[in-house]
Amino acid sequence: xxxxxxxxxxxxxxxxxxxxxxxxxxxxxxxxxxxxxxxxxxxxxxxxxxxxxxxxxxxxxxxxxxxxxxxxxxxxxxxxxxxxxxxxxxxxxxxxxxxxxxxxxxxxxxxxxxxxxxxxxxxxxxxxxxxxxxxxxxxxxxxxxxxxxxxxxxxxxxxxxxxxxxxxxxxxxxxxxxxxxxxxxxxxxxx
Length: 191
What we know:
Blueprint: E1 2-3, E2 6-7, H1 40-45, H2 54-87, H3 109-123, H4 131-149, E3 154-155, E4 160-161
Antiparallel strand pairs: 1-2, 3-4
Helix pairs in contact: 2-3
């Protein structure tokens, strides 16, 4: 670094990283290098995404599909009701199509379509299993409880039982078939 004709050395010992606190000095001169969102510090400071199991991803896909089906069925049934109101309702005298505020008034099929669309969405709303998420979470909590209370999942050498800290990925445990470890014995304690 050169300032006012004088050269100052810069080396890795003189670096202040993000969130560092400077003490025991009144001021410093600094040079800002490697800034922005593409730096290593910024890339590592973002919050990691939450892990989702295959069952949760599949369940979301099914719910979205059922919601699209709900919209499609409601739209088609409302369209059929509006067409029936326009074409056939005048013949059905017992539904009182002559009343202007009636849902079956053949002169206003758009009103009948909109009202029937909301009615169909309410009626067919049971197609989407809202309690499915609650049921899956309850099963996960029970699985974590069973893991914590399992006497066969106990290490007698260290005296530690199994401890399920989270219930997010219980169903993925059965998918593990290979454990990779480095040569330092991190997982095996050199045994």
